[in-house]
Amino acid sequence: SLSIGIVGLPNVGKSTLFNALTKNDALAANYPFATIEPNVGVVGVPDQRLTVLAELFDSQKIIPATMEFLDIAGIVKGASEGQGLGNKFLANIRETNAICQVIRAFEDPDVTHVDGDVAPSRDIETINTELILADLQTIEKALPRLDKEARTKKDKEKLAVVDAVNAAQKLLDGGVTLFAGAEAAGIDLTLLRELHLLTAKPFLYVFNLDESELTDEALRARLRDLVAPAEAIFLDAKIEAELIELPDDEALELLQGMGQDESGLSQLVRVGFDTLGLQTYLTAGPKESRAWTIRKGATAPEAAGVIHTDFQRGFIKAEIVSFDDLTTAGSMAAARTAGKVRMEGKDYVMQDGDVVEFRFNV
Ligand code: GDP
């Protein structure tokens, strides 16, 4: 499955957050395998719709979509030159599909900051600089070979790759990540795929705030601006760690007391899933109500293939009703009577929250 790497300077709350994520009953209860390795956690993607479906269909169990988080320690200034856990850090992050930067905004005299004081924008720059330098090294190594290949073979596609790599180098040299700047610079990231560049991965940001800052809209807006177009999530990691110890109703009460209606962990998983370019469709029956993971833009046969490759191969059609139409109607039979259940063919592009039954030949 696709994974998100959690990175950040030391002492910003990464481990606190990661542990809360992977020990969280609500997110991880169904997954005894939740911790594959000490630094890899599988979490369920929170989805209220599954609870509703399970009631409607009297399902025995609920199976949410899942995703992986990796706790990647070791970024410090100089990581790209092998400082700290430099090389290991870079190798680990290369394997992930998106990068979640945890940025410290909380003040605490008992928790030292590696660079002296709490300064979110400087820390973001420190991390981005290391990722950019690592990408520039990758490019410097690869460019002569790519260039030579393209020229000797007069290969148009390879020449386009070389152009894209040169443009990327220029962007990175100016201190801009590919994620933030490639589109405006007209760089087609698919041409850079073979280089596995770190800053071409989607980014998202978690700002670890003081409890009192959680409702500070001006601060949130300022921090959000720092990282746009990436998504920003605001939470207090220490409180998240406390929330997971509480029964659901008490946790919600505590959250609402702080002006929040959803835990930071739950937001992180939802936004992370979206950042990975993923969405879900749903199936429901007496056995289970379940969310299945597909990439955005997947067609009906591709979606069927996630359940079983035979479903994709033998795909005939999909019987689909949107979650909203189904719940408004109150039952599958009522939705059918109301004309809300559609038969879709092999070109249908799946929509988030489609409730589906596939018809196929075996
Ligand atoms: P990591 O090095 O980034 O993994 O950071 P840790 O999760 O180990 O946290 C470092 C220290 O900061 C620990 O003592 C945590 O209890 C503390 N800490 C983490 N998050 C918060 C927070 O939101 N507020 C405060 N005051 N302390 C925190």
UniProtKB/TrEMBL annotation:
Database matches in Pfam families: MMR_HSR1, YchF-GTPase_C
Residues holding ATP: N11, V12, G13, K14, S15, T16
Origin: domain of life: Bacteria
TGS domain sequence ranges: 277-360
InterPro entries the record matches: ATPase_YchF/OLA1, Beta-grasp_dom_sf, G_OBG, GTP-bd, P-loop_NTPase, TGS, TGS-like, TGS-like_dom_sf
Keywords on record: ATP-binding, Magnesium, Metal-binding, Nucleotide-binding
Domain OBG-type G: 2-277
Cofactor(s) demanded: Mg(2+)
PANTHER family per record: OBG GTPASE FAMILY, OBG-TYPE G DOMAIN-CONTAINING PROTEIN
Family stated for the protein in its record: Belongs to the TRAFAC class OBG-HflX-like GTPase superfamily. OBG GTPase family. YchF/OLA1 subfamily.
Function per UniProt: ATPase that binds to both the 70S ribosome and the 50S ribosomal subunit in a nucleotide-independent manner.
NCBIfam families: redox-regulated ATPase YchF
HAMAP family referenced in this protein's UniProt entry, alphabetically: YchF_OLA1_ATPase
Protein name per UniProt: Ribosome-binding ATPase YchF
Upper lineage: Bacteria, Bacillati, Actinomycetota, Actinomycetes, Streptosporangiales
